[in-house]
Amino acid sequence: MNRRRFLTAVGAGAAGLVAGCSAEPTDDGSTETGSGSTDTPDTGGTATEADGTATAEGTVTGTASGGTPLLRVGTYPSFVDAPSSSPGPWLKERFEAEFDAELQWFAPESSMDYFLQRRQQGVSIDTDLFLGLAPENLVKADRAVGEGESMFTSVDTADLSNADAVVGDYRFDPQDRAIPVGASYISLVYNQNALDERGAAAPETFDDLASAPYENGLLVPNPQNSETGLEFMFWTIDQFGEDGYLDYWSDLMNNGTRVLQDWGTAYDAYSNDEAPMVVSFSTDQVYADRYDQDMARHQVGFLNNSGYAYLEGAAPFTGTDQMGLATEFIDFVLQPAVQAEIAQRNVALPAVDNAELPSDYYDLVYEPEEIVSFGYDELMGNVEPWLSDWSRQIATQ
């Protein structure tokens, strides 16, 4: 999960914080961090250290010092861009301390779309694996490269010592190319104070959101630009079916729901009291607690007792000459202690069921009674028509 920011008042000023379980790579490949980006994905990128140099196109060149094996890992920017809190710098230090290897991060602004563009252009990817791959990213890549081809290669899970502890509901690739390494849940975040002023209780169902007490009350990231919004759309498809989800969205829009550019824009508007509810993540209270925020403004709600699983995987690129080291890296990332640290730094949940987190962390992280998530087979061939239908009927309202 790459991404969560909310605005917090510090004294008389306001500070923008990057919070969140991932950098929110969007469906078009741009990455939502901070206020988000929905521009055409650029081909540039940001390389982090490890004796690498970013070329004008954003690729990373260079070799590890002294002939030490070099593992080049692509990811989203917020996984690496805050040295004091992002998981990337910590993970690099720990991995290099345990293995005779150097880890080099590469985080292009357009995230996974950067690598897909290079593949389609016939240009070398120059990266060994990608960390932060969402199910819809995998489906998009497979559809783009064509039948019988893949940007990613399968991992032998027999070589992953903690593979059996991966939460079953988080597995999304039947070919084991993408191994789950983190999760969160799409949920509502709402301001109980603002709802109290309306005389409205906390919403409990999808139908509640389209009813009079919540008129003009909901902010939603645009599914065309945001994985958060896209997965909220998936959640409504699960609830109402392919034949009913557009009618539900029409009901939302008729009730004054606002669809904003991306997750960052929607959360900013929520933080500025433009509406009492926003589609966000069930880990919201972790950051609110760290910065001593009013928890009444950071209530988490699931609809119909369910939540849509936001999943991230690590997947080796086809053609890597470091497959063994890439597998060792994924094995390392899945270790319980590493999973616990990544989850806390990324404001997320571990992908394994044997990671031990502080008890007060779970006091702030909410999980639904029912996990909703479309797997690879359900998404393949459906994402584009679902989104196209939504765009024609809803985006124009």
From TrEMBL:
The keyword Mitochondrion does not apply. Pfam families: SBP_bac_6. It comes from the Archaea. Keywords: Signal. One of its GO terms (biological process) is thiamine transport. The keyword Nuclease does not apply. Residues 31-67 have a biased composition (Low complexity). GO terms for molecular function: thiamine binding. PROSITE patterns: PROKAR_LIPOPROTEIN (PS51257). InterPro entries: ThiB-like. Residues 21-67 are annotated as: Disordered. PANTHER family: ABC TRANSPORTER SUBSTRATE-BINDING PROTEIN, THIAMINE-BINDING PERIPLASMIC PROTEIN-RELATED. This is Thiamine ABC transporter substrate-binding protein. The lineage of its organism: Archaea, Methanobacteriati, Methanobacteriota, Stenosarchaea group, Halobacteria.
